[in-house]
Write a structure and sequence with these properties.
alpha+beta; Methane Monooxygenase Hydroxylase, Chain G, domain 1; 7-stranded mixed β-sheet; 15% strand
Length: 365
């Protein structure tokens, strides 16, 4: 089987795949998941102030040590989670073991904690796979400390922080003129803004399915609606808790958040509320799509039954006339007449035509 054949088979069987349901319902927070060690880990350091900026890729986790307490702001981004490297880096920067466990967790609910003068949050970066029509998510952990920000990502190929990296190269940018709390805000803002990009893709998917339902309400359309509902659950599960995360940064009394930065976190809070409301609207529309499908199926069934009823009514006179002249009696009018057959055949045609005219006048079809 060639690659193209496999692709089309996957496209056909995708709407009927039940693995997505298993992923949604088999979430047990009491079970400690086992994370597979990343095959490769990348360490990127951005050490900057208002005058200079240093961007460097490190080969070893210990190379991050000199950047601590150097009177600059340091952002260390780790792509790929390995237990030994996470513990080594966090222990050096004074991150609590509970936070280290959350960083290494799988499927963690987005949350925000404040432990030992360190602010920590977990969020999900969302991406839309247009080939599989799935909402994919990646867990991102952000640790905010004094003059440093640590971020941990699962996959180096999926990232929404490139605009932040570009702004760090500009000396006059807001990022270069402010503290690490603003960098933390910028990262959360990029994560939340990307939610709208994913929802735009889902909106296009909803429009396509709605058009397909209106044109042909078949079982494939119902399977696509079912798949879309599952993606809405994933979307809602990822977006809804982020509201509490941002609210935690706004309400914290930690001196790591400057008062001038609070208004920026409030702006992200407004965005996440809007994203949450929009996800609710998408879920309602998806439910309406199922109602639309059922209504179209019932409408088509009614049309079929209507046509069958009309055909049955039109054939009824012919059946009655044929049954009368087919009775086994010796004395039946026109039975032995040379034109009896043509008279009966004419009656079988005239009566249905008259019925069609009457049905049309009454507006029955």
């Amino acid at each position: 089987m060639n690659r193209r054949s496999k692709y089309y088979i996957q496209k056909i069987l995708l709407p009927f795949n039940a693995s997505r349901t298993k992923e949604i319902v088999t979430v047990n927070p009491t079970r400690i998941p086992v994370r597979e060690e990343a095959k490769a880990t990348n360490f990127f350091v951005y050490d900057y102030d208002s005058v200079t900026v240093e961007e460097k890729m490190l080969s070893n986790i210990t190379e991050c040590y000199p950047y601590m307490n150097n009177n600059k702001i340091t952002w260390i981004n780790v792509d790929g989670i390995r237990k030994s490297e996470v513990e080594t880096l966090c222990n050096y920067y004074g991150v609590h073991p509970l936070i280290q466990e959350d960083i290494q967790s799988i499927g963690q609910r987005p949350k925000m904690d404040e432990i030992e003068n360190v602010l920590f949050c977990i969020c999900n970066m969302l991406f839309y796979n247009e080939k599989l029509y799935k909402v994919e998510h990646e867990q991102v952990s952000i640790v905010l400390g004094k003059n440093f920000v640590l971020s941990f990502q699962e996959d180096a190929d999926k990232d929404v922080f490139n605009p932040i990296r570009d702004k760090l190269k500009i000396a006059a940018s807001k990022l270069r003129q402010t503290g690490p709390d603003y960098l933390c805000y910028a990262m959360l803002d990029m994560i939340v803004d990307n939610y709208f990009t994913v929802m735009e893709k889902l909106g296009e998917r909803i429009e396509n399915i709605e058009e397909e339902i209106q044109n042909s309400a078949n079982s494939s359309a119902l399977a696509k609606i079912n798949l879309l509902r599952k993606e809405m659950i994933i979307l809602k599960r990822s977006i809804a808790p982020v509201r509490e995360v941002i609210n935690g940064f706004i309400r914290t009394e930690s001196n790591l958040i400057d008062e001038r930065t609070l208004k920026y976190f409030k702006d992200v809070y407004d965005h996440i509320i809007q994203a949450n409301d929009l996800s609710e609207n998408y879920r309602d529309i998806t439910m309406n799509l199922q109602d639309l499908y059922l209504n179209n199926v019932n409408l088509r069934m009614n049309e079929v039954m209507k046509v069958m009823a009309v055909v049955t009514c039109l054939l009824a006179p012919a059946t009655v006339i044929g049954g009368i002249f087919g009775m086994n009696f010796d004395k039946i009018p026109w039975l032995h007449n040379d034109r009896g057959f043509y008279v009966a055949l004419g009656a079988m045609l005239i009566v249905p035509i008259w019925m069609i005219i009457m049905f049309r006048k009454k507006g029955w079809f």
